[in-house]
Amino acid sequence: MESEVLIEARALTRRYGPTLAVDGLHLTLRKGEILGLLGPNGAGKSTTMKMLTGNLAPSAGEVLIGGKSLREDAKAAKRALGYLPEQPPVYGELTVDEYLDYCASLHGIARKSRPEAVASAKRDCGLADVSRRLIGNLSKGYQQRVGLAQAIIHRPPVIILDEPTVGLDPIQIREIRALIAALGRNHSVILSSHILPEIQAVCSRVMIINRGRAVYNEPVTAVKSAAFGAIAAVFRQLPDARTLETLAGVRRVLALGEGRYRIEVDGSADPREAIAGAAVEGGWGLLELRAEAQTLEEIFVELTSRDAALAEAA
């Protein structure tokens, strides 16, 4: 049985005058998922995040959170949501305890239940040792932790994080990544980031947005193991490259010398079996045949660059 759907965006669209920032986007987040949202600058990521959190009304389309419509019943929908924008919404003149108690009150947590809610959020976000310190005196990494704590203090099923590691040093980045992974065990998360290794390390699924549309939406396991854009092949006897190019699934063949070939695939079929059969039939002496896995960076660059090239050609 499929996991419960916690966020569903249907044909989400946003216009700024004549500019189409988000173009009929469909997005689904299921229980237990950490979804990584990627895209180049100006792709529509921030606009999408603002619409998903109810901070910006869509021009068309609908967002459901926990089955509640953000348009029809915004308060009920937002109760199921925790949000950390790129700039943490913290007050530097308050202590960590004062701020989190204030956030708990905003979320409607009863006064008698707030101390436990604050203690639980601090425990999950590693803030117990800085409870009485002014937020303005904390490092940026700890301020991010406070921002995460306010996002989870009411224990929402969904957390949305917009660039949570921007401006942090490498040690702080590792700490926040570990914290997000830990939060993902009890919450479903949407994480927007420009840092591709961060997405690959933390997320279970990746969505790439370009020019307001989703151009890729696959599990991270597909990136790590299944996705490939080319095949490396080595033959004892030199085959005719034109024969290889006629095989189903082959886009282009590049001869690298000494019987080595790089065979680019077009995605319509996996040509490895056909290559092996042609090698046997032609007596080419097949010595090596392996898929060259694409990295997330290669997939990202290929999809966003291709879309930009098509737009320029049009």
UniProtKB/TrEMBL annotation:
Matching PROSITE patterns: ABC_TRANSPORTER_2
Record Gene3D superfamilies: P-loop containing nucleotide triphosphate hydrolases
SUPFAM superfamilies membership: P-loop containing nucleoside triphosphate hydrolases
InterPro entries, A to Z: AAA+_ATPase, ABC_transporter-like_ATP-bd, P-loop_NTPase
All copies of domain ABC transporter, residue ranges: 7-236
Superkingdom assignment: Bacteria
Molecular function in Gene Ontology: ATP binding; ATP hydrolysis activity
Keyword list, A-Z: ATP-binding, Nucleotide-binding, Transport
PANTHER family for the chain: ABC TRANSPORTER, ATP-BINDING PROTEIN (PTHR43335)
Similarity remark: Belongs to the ABC transporter superfamily.
Name under which the protein is recorded: ABC transporter ATP-binding protein
Species this chain originates from: Solimonas fluminis
